[in-house]
Amino acid sequence: MAVDLSSVMTGAVNEPPRIVLQGVQGIGKSTLAAAAPSPIFIQTEDGLGMLEVPHFPLAETYQDVIDAMSSLATQDHDYQTLVVDSLDWLEPLIHRHVCAQNNWATIDEAGYGKGYTAAGEIWSEFIDALNYIRATKKMTVILTAHVQIKRHDNPATDPYDRYTIKLHKNAGNKMVEYADCVLFANYRISTTQTEGGFNQKKTRAIGSGERILFTEERPSHIAKNRFNMPPELPLDWETLASHIPYLSAPTPTKTKLKEIA
Question: What are the φ/ψ torsions at residue 136 (nearest 5 degrees)?
Answer without folding.
Answer: -85, -30
